[in-house]
Specification:
With 330 residues, this protein is mostly helical. It is built from 15 helices and no strands.
Length: 330
């Protein structure tokens, strides 16, 4: 199906995957209140039972900073994620989940943490819908999903997350990147359950990109191939007739631009007749069915006849110019 030059951010990007390790604080007012991780964990649990959520989160976080390598640290980090999620603190809950994925992988049940990370990422995205002043950029919202994909690349919900990323690119007007994400999704997950939605987003992005590239016949030809290729994944798609119409639109854009480009050379003040003839012939090779085809064939013949007449005239012997003696005799 071809590729656009954009690259997927979540494939290899330190900005996405880097999560700083929590380390002990040496400031005199920092650090845990208890002397052992077990005692600190008990403190956090007691504060939680008393309904002191923020104090409990702080106690658990101090434990993770001070005794990161202990089993209690994992329990504390899981508690942080749970408490922040229950309180509706989407960004803090998401960060806590990602920290678990980055630094405690293999030591906890993965599915619940992944599900919660997606729920928090979705909540952060939903909060931006309808905002006049956005608190988070589209890149930030995409990065939330990219991180989850990085830490669980074969998770069954990856196609769902990739479509979210494609949608966010589309909403930001970055259609080439939306195409790339959908393209990768179709290639890597050809049996995903959301392929109808993926193909719909893919084709819509191709159509929008064609509008941006409407003056570039080479790129329009590429997009026309992409539109045709996307439809092969879901030949019985409910919107297949619409996609076919969009493909015809792109073909028409390419046809009209190619015709304008070819006609531009038919200008004797700037270009030779040969240049115009070659441009028209190239157009007819690409668009033999064009409504302009017969007119252009006639024009090509006219240009060839003019060239032939000019060549013939140049080949005729010229009469010698009259000399002074000839003029005196006359």
């Amino acid at each position: 199906m071809g590729r656009t030059p954009e690259e997927l951010r979540f494939l290899d990007n330190d900005e996405v995957t880097e999560v700083d390790l929590k380390e002990p604080s040496w400031w005199f007012w920092g650090g845990p209140d208890e002397k052992t991780p077990a005692a600190q964990l008990a403190l956090g649990a007691r504060l939680e039972r008393e309904g002191k959520r923020e104090e409990a989160v702080e106690a658990y976080d101090d434990l993770v900073h001070a005794w990161h390598a202990t089993p209690e640290a994992l329990t504390a980090q899981l508690a942080i994620a749970r408490l922040e999620s229950a309180a509706g603190n989407a960004q803090r809950a998401y960060d806590a989940d990602i920290y678990l994925l980055a630094h405690f992988a293999g030591r906890f049940e993965l599915e619940p943490v992944l599900r919660d990370a997606v729920a928090q990422a979705d909540l952060l995205t939903a909060r931006e819908v309808g905002r006049t002043l956005h608190l988070s950029s589209g890149a930030t919202l995409r990065r939330n999903y990219e991180r989850i994909i990085h830490y669980a690349p074969r998770w069954g919900r990856v196609p769902e997350l990739m479509l979210r990323i494609a949608d966010l690119y589309y909403d930001d007007g970055e259609y080439a990147s939306a195409i790339t994400v959908c393209d990768r999704l179709l290639v890597d997950w050809p049996h995903a359950s959301n392929l109808d939605a993926v193909v719909a987003r893919y084709c819509a992005a191709v159509r929008e990109q064609a509008t941006l590239w409407r003056n570039d016949t080479r790129r329009l030809a590429h997009l026309e191939r992409l539109m045709a290729g996307a439809q092969t994944f879901r030949p019985n798609h409910p919107d297949r007739d619409r996609f076919a119409a969009w493909q015809r639109e792109i073909h028409q854009l390419r046809h009209d631009r190619a015709y304008a480009n070819a006609s531009f050379y038919d200008n004797p003040k700037a270009y030779s007749r040969e240049a115009a003839r070659l441009a028209y012939q190239a157009f007819l090779r690409d668009f033999p069915e064009s409504p302009h085809a017969e007119t252009l064939r006639v024009r090509i013949a006219q240009l060839a006849a003019l060239d032939a007449a000019e060549t013939s005239q140049a080949a005729k012997p010229q009469a010698p110019a009259p000399t002074a003696a000839t003029k005196e005799t006359e």
